[in-house]
Design brief:
single chain; about 240 residues; Rossmann fold; 7 helices
């Protein structure tokens, strides 16, 4: 399969939204949830294509000791569900004491971000809805899996995972935790998420918060946005 390189997250989000629309999503009560920070840019584009409200779900990678880019598990907001990749935990020598500190830190970071993003705003209602969780890419899949497992406990009618690109092994693994997983490409040789974008600038907390506030103003939960203006776009810093 020809390797597809996305210009930036917004282009990737639009393409992902069109792929979801082609599968019939957007015809029923649907909620788009983005994983910060880059996933919120994707979520905004998907929500505009599908004329659906969007919100945020926060899942945080557990970092390997001395290798912060390597994920050894994840924690998600709400019930603070923790998932560990036991094989990787053993291979990097993460001790129980290290895991306890890292899990506590990531839980605190989740709570900090929830306060920053949401303030006093309650989390969205997902019971009985089709919920689509999106990110800008899926590497190990454990952060995404934590988000799916946390949402499953809240009884959505249908739970969907979606991303522009995912490692093939992770894509296959996530099928057990969602009713459907939709990705534009699933390479066997993945490298890193950023390798699939020409522009993969970091998204700040401030930009992520601005995306959420803009979309909360545009639509109320459960209401269609078919007749709404798409509004201004955020330019990546």
């Amino acid at each position: 399969m020809r390797r597809m390189i996305f210009e930036d997250r917004r282009e990737a989000g639009r393409q992902l939204g069109l792929a979801l629309e082609g599968r019939g999503y957007g015809m029923e009560a649907i909620l788009i949830l983005g994983i910060p920070r880059g996933g919120l840019v994707i979520a905004e584009e998907v929500s505009q294509v599908l004329s659906a409200p969007m919100d945020v779900i926060i899942a945080r990678k557990l970092r390997a000791p001395y290798q912060p880019e390597l994920g050894i598990g994840a924690v998600v907001d709400g019930d603070h569900i923790t998932i560990l990749n036991d094989e990787v935990v053993r291979s990097v020598g993460a001790t129980p004491a290290y895991l306890e500190r890292e899990i506590a830190y990531q839980k605190e970071e989740i709570d900090r971000r929830l306060r920053f993003y949401r303030g006093d705003r309650p989390p969205p209602e997902v019971t009985g809805k089709t919920v689509v969780v999106v990110d800008d890419g899926i590497a190990t899949g454990y952060t995404f899996r934590a988000a799916l497992e946390g949402l499953r406990r809240r009884n959505p009618q249908k739970l969907v995972g979606a991303a522009p690109v995912a490692a093939r092994d992770s894509f296959d693994m996530l099928k057990a935790f969602a009713d459907e997983v939709v990705c534009l490409q699933t390479p066997d040789f993945f490298m890193a998420v950023g390798a699939w974008y020409r522009n993969f600038d970091q998204v700040s907390d401030e930009e992520a918060s601005s995306i959420l506030r803009r979309n909360w103003i545009r639509s109320k939960p459960g209401e269609s946005r078919k007749n709404d203006s798409k509004g201004e776009k955020v330019t990546e810093a």
